[in-house]
Amino acid sequence: MNIAVRKLRKKQRELKALTFYLCLGLLTTSCLVDPAQNRTGSGGKALKNTQDTVSAGYGRVLAANPLILSDYSADEDTDLSTLITRSPVPITNNQYLIKDCTMVANCLEVTEDTGISPFYNETSQWAFPVTSTEFLQINAYYHMSKIMDTYLSDMQNYYNIVYPDTGSRPYSSTIPSDSDQHKSFWKSLTNSSSKLIVEADSSLKDNASFSPSNFKIRLGYLSGYTNLKMAQDPSVIYHEFGHTVVERLMNHRNRSYAVNNCLGSDEYEVCSGESQLGYFAHDDALSINEGLSDYFSYFVNSREHMGEWGLGKFKNASRPLSEDDSLHIAGISSDSDSRLRYPEYLGYNVYSPEKRIDDIHLDGQIISHFLVALTKEFQNKCTGTHTQAKKLVFYTLAETLAELGDLTAKAKDSFVDQINLDINYAHEWLKSVKPVNFRNFSQAFARNVLKMTIQSTSLCPLNSFSKDDLEQLLDSYGLLLFRTYNTNYNFTGTSGNVTVNQLNRKKSELISKNLLIEDTRSTYSDISVFDIRSTIYQTIRNQMKIEEVTTTDARYNNGNGQVSPGEIVGIFANVFNKSNSIMAGTRVLASDWAHMQDGLPCTDLSDNFPSLAQGGTTCDQLTKDNYDDSGRIMPVCMLTYNDGSSTKILNQHEFLKKMKSDIGLLEQDCLGQGEDRTQDDLNNCFVKAIPSANTQNIPFMLPNSNWQETMQDEQGQPIFTDSNLMFFEINKNIPIGTEVTCRLRTTFSNCDDCYHDSQSSYDDFSDFEFAGEKPFNILNINFKIGQ
After folding, report:
1. CB neighbour list of residue 333: distance below 8 Å, 6 or more residues apart
2. Which of 7, 34, 214, 402 is deepest in the core (most CB within 10 A)?
3. What gap in Å lies between CA 453 and CA 440, rounded to an integer?
4. Which residues contact 292 (CB under 8 A, 6 or more apart)?
5. Phi, psi of 433, rounded to the nearest 5 degrees
6. In whole angstroms, how large is the CA radius of gyration of the chain?
């Protein structure tokens, strides 16, 4: 739902930027196109690319995108048969474009579009005219097949490194010890989700996408051009396959757990739950996904630019991968003082550098540039070769993603509850409470680089890459956002925890959480309410899980800009960056948290609300042993009840009890589906923060500004999208005039005291502390139920 859509006017160097919806993932693999194979095409002579010109099992493809193969001279009228491989290359001896990988049967299927079966080729001769859909499918199959083989081989090789048949292990790995047996770096519990479907000539307009829900890649077309297709550019194919890889690696440990514990089990949340690198339309994790995916194209072809063909030449939406790219503005270079730094270059577009754009692909450039620079550092100081340097980056990403995505909360086989809190809360922690952001990703990645190249040098034979080298490179990108490597995870005490050399932090600025405040200026309202039915309906369909919503068609939404009974509303809480620096990755959380005890609101938190007289209580200090006590972690919204003699602030179950006697409401009148109501339904009886959309994300705010001032359209109007809002469902039975207070929490990525405990040598807060107030600010929003 774009409540206000930003439109970029057509300029000499600027077209409307292409967006990839559902590019959910990352890439990391040593998926490699053989550089020795026919990369120069047919030397300007058109080839007859028909079946009678090749042997069975062979065909012709575009070894790179047309712009590269033509020395940047190709245009929309270029005959691509002049650029295809002169000599035929191996495709498959099958009669369909389907593949059994060496370690995983039935791993790939390429077809034309949704609902169309793979085409049958009786002779297995894979040469077709370059303008045909068959050629696009063959080209996609060729590049996907090679990438998959290399990825699976590299993962097996890396498993053999960390779990050798003989000798000691080089270091403690996050890779599951049974990964070799179950191939959990690819396989899922069902065969259907282990086969990647690729639609090579998709009807997807101006788009390419990966969908984890059906394990499918769609390669679309460029509107306005007859024969420009995404499948003609291998770098786009590599990018999308990278999203596939991250989805696999984020769930590496989850799938290993599932194979061992969940076959035949009905424990859905534990056994079927899977993690994502990004849950909202624009959060830090999705930006990181995109940066990793762009890096993957470099990983494959070693070119420092992604998408030069259709995206770049025709849509001005390609992206550089290093500071040496000529498209960068003056002032950006590979000098340590001039790199693409976080958060300064969030929203930076080489095609329109004069204006920030709210886009995950642009924000991800910081990660891709960092990884390319790190690869060069590894080559010079660790591996001695570019190929091995890229593999080392990939291995580090494999370690990092397996750890960050672990819903079993272990991080390693030998650990318990060391990441994402515990197995019951892991999904909510990863999604909204303590998600992957630029800070957490950089710290986890650095922790793995430390163990793999410095504390152990088996993968770094040159042994010249130091901890200072790592920290200084991170800092040059503004990513040295952590004070320790958190090598002790959630273990108590700081013994063995590796600290950052603070002298290396010169560019990475850490901001106090107290500088993120409520915007109290009279020119701005505390909250903005979005309740137009048509847009809310689309949000329900696109962003929410249907089982979380009672009224799935938004029939009660009246569009009056107030919170009314029965509505599903988007709420924007107006916050302000009081610092003199860019504040990035701001989040306002409406997720349940430990702000009550025995169902009574705590009076001794920093907001001093409610008072004891208003029904509050003095709460025990939050500990690892009591954070999950009954009545402790509760929904954020509380309701005001006046019995004529006093005013109380009640949780929603207690308010229901009052409504039973006052107006005859029953438990089945609470929000929820079906006839029965769970305790969770009763706790969310009247105002429910919808779990899949309970976080307000603000990518960046300029110094001394709010979001409305930071991101405006060409008419000066603020831009809001789904990702900027929290969504709540309001019970149709709630009395008009009811006063609601929602006790929210705020945080941001380049925050100091949101992560570092000054009372514990600046070690990271333990995961259980994120159940409470300590790493956050409290922000109370208030509204009254209107007509």
Report:
1. 323, 324, 339
2. 402
3. 20
4. 25, 26, 27, 28, 242, 246, 364, 367, 368, 371, 397
5. -80, -50
6. 27
Q: Residue holding tokens 């081989």?
A: 153
Strand partners, 764: 756
| 34: DSSP letter | -
Predicted local confidence at residue 189, as pLDDT:
65
Is pLDDT at 658 greater than 80 in this prediction?
Answer: yes
Which residue is associated with the tokens 């990793």? 292
* H or E element at residue 218: strand 216-219
The Cα–Cα gap between 557 and 567 comes to 5
Q: Tokens at residue 240, please?
A: 């999308």
Structure tokens, 382: 């660790």
Predicted structure pTM score: 0.93
Strands 600-601 vs 596-597: parallel, antiparallel or unpaired: antiparallel
Question: CA-CA distance, 234 to 242, in Å (whole number)?
Answer: 12
pLDDT tens, position by position, 660-696: 999 999 999 999 998 899 999 999 999 999 999 999 9
**SS3 of 502, please?**
helix
Tokens of 685: 């009886």
Contact 251/272 with Cβ under 8 angstroms? no
DSSP code string of 354-367: TS----HHHHTHHH
Query: What DSSP character marks residue 103?
Result: S
Contacts of 176 (CB under 8 A, 6+ apart): 182, 184, 252, 253, 256, 257, 402, 413
Instruction: Name the token pair of 21.
Output: 């919806």
- Residues in the chain, total: 787
Q: What is the largest CA-CA distance in the chain?
A: 93
Nearest alpha-carbon partner for 362 in 301, 288, 440, 312: 288
* Location of structure tokens 């596939």: 244
What is the crossing angle of helices 284-301 and 438-449, to 10°?
A: 40
For residue 726, report the phi and psi dihedrals to the nearest 5 degrees.
-100, 145
Reading the block at residue 486, the tokens are 């958190």
Confidence at 526, pLDDT banded by 50, 70, 90? very high
Between the alpha carbon of residue 432 and those of residues 435, 517, 603, the distances in Å are 5, 20, 25
Q: In degrees rounded to 5, what are phi and psi of residue 660?
A: -60, -45
Q: CA-to-CA distance for 675 and 673, rounded, in angstroms? A: 7
Give whole-number Cα distances, 488 to 496, 497, 504, 763, in Å.
Answer: 7, 5, 22, 9
CA distance 371 to 292: 8
Among residues 235, 240, 207, the alpha carbon closest in space to that of 221 is found at 207
- For residues 568 and 690, the answer to whether their CB atoms sit within 8 Å is yes
Alpha carbon separation from 757 to 733, 761, 769 (Å, rounded): 44, 7, 10
Whole-number Å distance between alpha carbons of 432 and 151: 30
